[in-house]
Design brief:
Blueprint (H helix, E strand, L loop, with lengths): L1 E2 L21 H4 L1 E2 L11 E7 L3 H5 L9 H10 L9 E8 L6 H17 L3 E6 L4 H12 L5 E6 L16 H11 L5 E7 L6 H9 L3 E4 L8 H14 L2 E7 L21 H12 L4 E7 L10 H15 L3
Parallel strand pairs: 2-4, 3-4, 3-5, 5-10, 6-7, 6-9, 7-8, 9-10
Antiparallel strand pairs: 1-4
Helix pairs in contact: 3-10, 4-5, 5-6, 8-9, 9-10
């Protein structure tokens, strides 16, 4: 169920007459037209997961399966500055009907292939069920490595359910880590006591989850928070960053399954991401839950694209 990205998604303003350095992302993207991709050295593979079955199972607002092409269009016209990694568009993976589990397996295999061939992954969700697919691919490609997961999210996503949903990915990754006898190192930044039941917070405590509550995430604590996140990076062999876009306040990000009542402002989010991306250990990142059906004048797409752009530009 792999599809290459249509070239027409990558369009924008051409300023090249001003200077050879006046380039935008659409002019520097490495567009892959076949699977498996042939990646250049130091590549970040942009890969979409066209899924929102997990959102439906979690009783959320569906539509996130349509996100990857919309996010590409929003990213295309942003400026392309010199970066440590070449950005390669490796297309999208979907699945038939509501067979999420099959789609997650296929996506995990695609992620593992990219990593085994030296690439890193920047994934466009899809609902947060994307995280189990992405994370299990990382576990497969990096056996024996201590992978720290840093999730910016108002929800712990440790729900118990008989099927995979957008609310279960980290409970599933915890179980997978236990089955593989590997450490489950999970930090959730911006979780809210108002948005997580006592059962979920108890499960987080039992799993040793490092929770940084939304009431702690503000500019007065910014340096302390950056230091905490640097400690997470320092203790790990590799880092996986996942951003549920509903961690952004609803006025900035209305286009999600569950808009935030509080959230982390975009400027603070980017400030907290910077030392993580600069730490030299990030192997994978994703942004999930963008739902174009609920966007307002493309505002959410622009904010999401800026987050994705910052991840790529600051990735070392």
């Amino acid at each position: 169920m792999w599809q290459a990205s249509p070239a027409e998604l990558w369009q924008g303003r051409d300023d090249s007459r001003e200077s050879p350095a006046a380039k935008r992302v659409f002019q520097t993207i490495d567009l892959q037209s076949a699977w498996p991709p042939v990646l250049p050295e130091h590549a970040v593979a942009l890969l979409g997961f066209a899924s929102d079955t997990g959102v439906a199972r979690n009783l959320g607002r569906v539509g996130a399966a349509k996100a990857p092409p919309v996010l590409r269009k929003a990213l295309a016209n942003l400026a392309s500055h010199p970066a440590a990694h070449v950005l390669c568009d490796c297309g999208d993976i979907g699945y038939a009907g509501d067979d999420l589990e099959s789609g997650q397996r296929d996506f995990a295999e695609a992620v593992a292939h990219i990593h085994r061939h030296g690439g890193k992954t920047l994934v466009l969700g899809g609902g947060h069920e994307t995280a189990f697919a992405h994370g299990s691919g990382l576990f497969a490609a990096h056996p024996g490595r201590h992978i720290a997961i840093i999730n910016f999210d108002p929800h712990l996503d440790l729900r118990r359910h008989h099927q995979a949903t957008s609310g279960t990915p980290f409970a599933q990754l915890a179980a997978l880590a236990a089955a593989q006898n590997r450490r489950f190192d999970y930090t959730c930044v911006g979780a809210g006591r108002a948005t997580n039941t006592a059962a979920l917070t108890a499960d987080a405590a039992a799993l040793g989850v490092n929770v940084i509550w939304d009431t702690e995430v503000h500019w007065a604590h910014a340096e302390r928070l950056r230091a905490q996140l640097q400690e997470v990076v320092a203790r790990a062999d590799a880092v996986y960053v996942t951003i549920d876009l509903d961690v952004l306040p609803a006025p900035y990000m209305p286009a999600v399954s569950a808009p935030a009542a509080l959230g982390i402002a975009p400027d603070l989010l980017l400030y907290l991401l910077q030392p993580i991306m600069a730490g030299g250990k990030v192997i994978a990142a994703d942004a999930v839950e963008y739902n174009p059906d609920y966007d307002i004048h493309g505002q959410g797409a622009r904010v999401a694209a800026r987050v994705l752009w910052q991840l790529w530009q600051e990735w070392v």
